[in-house]
Structure formats: structure tokens, C-alpha cells
Amino acid sequence: MTLPLPDAWLLLDRAAGNLEAQIQGAIREQILDGRLMAGERLPSSRALALSLGIARSTVVGGFERLRAEGFIEGAQGATMRVARLATPPQGARARPIEPLPRAAPEPERFLPFRPGLPDLDSFPAALWARCLAARARHLRLHDLGYGEEAGLPELRQAIAAHVVRARAVLADPEQVIVMPSAASILAMVADIAGVRGGRPVWLEEPGYVTARDIFLAAGARLVSVPCDAEGIAITRGEGPPPSLIYVTPSHQYPTGVAMSLSRRLELLDFARANRAVVIEDDYDSEFHYASRPLAALQGLDRAGCVVYVGTFSKVLAPGLRVAYAVLPPSLLSQARAVLRREGSSAPIHVQAALADFLNEGHLRAHIRRMQTLYRERMQATRAAVLASGDGLLQPGSGDGGLQLAAWFKNRDADDGQMARALHAAKIGAMALSPFYRNEPRPGLLFGIGGATLERIPALGKALDRLLRP
Predict the structure, then answer these.
(1) Phi/psi at 208 (nearest 5 deg)?
(2) How remote is the C-alpha of 320 from its chain's centroid?
(3) pLDDT, tens digit, for every residue of 183-201?
């Protein structure tokens, strides 16, 4: 028999790195645990790589490690089988193969007004399916080989053209890399910026919790820098100069504030003087409602210190698992080395379909359509928050992005308890306190992606019921 393609038995932790060793360890455990018998066939390296969304070379490397140890056998390029061990593992076949328990989905992830989600009901499914099917049927032979570690060249060219036109980014396709998520890009940049060993990373306060966790896992020492109505106040940072600075200048997360031009120039001067790498997370800059958005921070950079990070998770759908970065030339060789070592890439047919989706103008059309829709939802959500609860919540401007922050006028309010009560009422707002590392300011964060006009009255009623004495 052939071992089925991985479901729960082979889960890769991309943030932990060394994917070859993870594949080796997972299969070796199956053999030692008696779940795989001598003579059973392994999936082909190509099928396993496509299933896991990694480079085939990574799977081949894992197989080679197992063959060198004597756990599997077979000629290179041929079917690999479980080897006959001199002493069969204790308890071999003593119990049937059972899938590992799956984590239950978090119900609150799918509630209306959950931050971080676009309107999945408006996803252009028919257009995307057409692009995906066409590329799945007609992938070119060279696309199926050992492609460039930075991503499909056609997609990198399309991304460069998009960010140059839409965000005034200074980008050559050679500077673009494609990875499965913005989180994986942050982890890679932390690696090549050398934050391990407690080197300082400066972050916005309040700020993106996932970025904070990634840098902590990379071994950095975090320094919170206050944000105000103009964005990060870099002169208020304390301690040794940073090796890395993480910012969300277009729509500060979670407050939604746009960093002023003077603050942008101040940040770039500071980074240049201290030889720090700046990560510009431009996660939902496509959506701006009050005026034309400021150009990307990266477009102002003349010292080559800004890494521009974008994603298709907010503008299209998180399930695409495609993000990208525009790297300064000084970091390209290191980044490519990490990508070769880790084999972290989006499936090639998804990259090819996305290149067509961009080149045929479907992304631009979708953004225009959603811009109008999201503006209407943001205005209605803000009005509902402002009118509810006797004015106890003060919302932000709602000038752009997919979330609206609102703060309690009472600094002693328990926003965690309020968020839990809203979840019980099927409203997925998040408490703002966890976004702070120092003194928290209580409030709520509302996502407007799924905030249809039919759902917004229920939000106002729930806030009234919970906030009014």
C-alpha cells in the first residue's frame, strides 16, 4: 500500500524552520511507531511537495536523510519504500492508523465584525476559478521544475507593476519575493536582520500582536514606541538603537492612524543613522476612504533600509496563502539563501493563476468595487458605535482600512469582558487592551469586512444593551 498524502500526520511548522528535518522526523516516527510496515510505498516527492505547498527539493532532502539512516530504500527518482529493519519496532501494527485529533475551529473567527477579515462573500470566485483552472491544466514544463526560490518570475513582475502603480513603491521584479504569509516574511527578515540574542526590535504601541510574537520567538528584545495621531513617535523610543523597526504607516494597526509625512521622514532618517532595517507592513492600504492615501514609506527611502511587505489576504482572501515583499538590494542575497534553505513557497499553480489575475486587471477591478462597499460599511459602523451606549465609546476617524478602533471614555472599563459579551451576542469585536505591552487603553476593535448593512443595526442594539446603565 502507499502512505496517503499528509493530512494530520505531517504538519509542518514553517516558523520553526528546517523543513527537511521535520519531514524526516514525521516519517521516521510513523515507522518506529509501527504505523508503517516494511515494503509500504511513500508518496512521490512531487505529490508530497504539492500537497504540503513546499519545494520538491525539500521533500527529496528529507527522503535522502531517511534513506541514509536506513529507514527507507529505493533508487533516487524511483518509488521509495519502508525498509525492512533488523529489529521491527515494538508494537508494530499493534494499533490501527488513526488520524491525530484536529483542533476545533475557533467560532469567534467567523463572527461578523471580526477584525482582519475581508468580505469573503464578495470574493470574485468565478474569475479566480477560471484563472486557477487554466493554469492547473496548462502549467509550462519549466514552471514544474526547480523554480526560482523567490517565486514565479511572472508573478513577481505582476506584483512589482501593481505596487509601483498603486503604492508608488520603488520596485524592480528582482527585488520581489513571494512567500505563503506575511508572518513568514517577518520571521525571515528577523532572521537576516540578526535579532537573535536579544538585539532590540522597536514596535508600535499599541501594535500588532502576531508581529510581537514572531520577533520574540526570533530571540529579539522588544521595545515599545508610542503612537499618537501622527503615527509612531520614533524619538520617544528608549534604550539601545534597534536592529529592526516594525511599522504599519498606512493604517496603523490597530488604531487606523496614517503616519504623517514628517514622521515618515523622521523615521527614515533615524533608521539610516542607526543602520536599522524598517519593515513596512502595508497590509490593507488599498482601502482608503477620506482622501487619497499617502504613498508607501518605501517610496521615500533613499538609503535602502525599508522592507515593503504586502499580502493578498486582505484585498482578496486569506486562504490564498500568498504574500510578498520588496527587499532592498542589500538583503536580497541573504533572503534568497533563507528561501533556498527553508523551501517556503506558495503552490506554483496558485502563483501562476494570481499572475494572470493581476495582469488581466481583475485585482484592480475588485479593489474599485470593494472600495465603494467598504467605505459605506465603515461609515455605517462608525455611526452605529458613535450613537450607541450614551457616547461611552469614542471611535476613530474610520478614514481607511478594514477595522475601526473605538476607545472607552472610562479608562477603567473592562474591554475583555465587553468583548466576551459581544461574542455571546454573535459579534466578533476584539478588546484593544492586548495590543498594548505597557499601560493599556481599553477599547474595542471592529472589523468592517463582513459588516453588511443588514448586520450593523444588531451591533448598535448589542452595544446599547451592554453599555447603558
Answers:
(1) -70, 115
(2) 11
(3) 999 999 999 998 888 899 9
Ramachandran bin of 108, using left for φ above 0, alpha for ψ from -120 to 50, beta for the remaining angles: alpha
Q: Backbone dihedral region of 168: left (phi > 0), alpha (psi from -120 to 50 degrees) or beta? A: left
Q: What is residue 57's DSSP assignment? A: H
Q: Which three cell numbers stand for residue 411?
A: 479608562
64 within 8 A of 23, measured Cβ to Cβ: no
CB atoms within 10 A of CB 351: 23
Residue 70 CA to its chain's centroid (Å): 38
Contacts of 203 (CB under 8 A, 6+ apart): 211, 212, 215, 222, 223, 224, 225, 245, 246
The mean pLDDT of 213-220, rounded to a whole number, is 93
Q: Among residues 408, 444, 436, which one has the least CA distance to residue 206?
A: 436
Q: What is the pLDDT of residue 97?
A: 47
User: In b/e form, how buried is each residue of 105-143, taking b as 16+ CB within 10 angstroms?
Assistant: eeebeebbbbbbbbbeebbbeebbebbbeebeeeeeeeb
User: Rounded CA gap, 151 and 153, in Å?
Assistant: 6
Question: Is residue 94 pLDDT above 50, yes or no?
Answer: no
Question: Rounded to 5 degrees, what are φ and ψ at 177?
Answer: -125, 150
Burial of 78 from C-beta contacts in 10 A (0-12 / 13-18 / 19+):
exposed
Burial 173-208 (b: 16+ CB within 10 A, else e): bebbbbbbbbbbbbbbbbbbbebeeebbbbbbbbbb
Closest to 83 in 3D by CA, of 45, 36, 35, 46: 36
Report d(CA 273, CA 303) in Å as an integer. Answer: 10
Answer whether residue 144 shows pLDDT above 90.
no
Q: When comparing pLDDT for 194 and 430, which is higher? A: 430
Number of neighbours of residue 31 by Cβ within 10 angstroms: 21
pLDDT tens, residue by residue, 230-259: 999 999 999 999 999 999 999 999 999 999
Joined together, the cell numbers standing for residue 406 give 473605538
Q: Please say whether the beta carbons of 404 and 395 come within 8 A.
A: yes
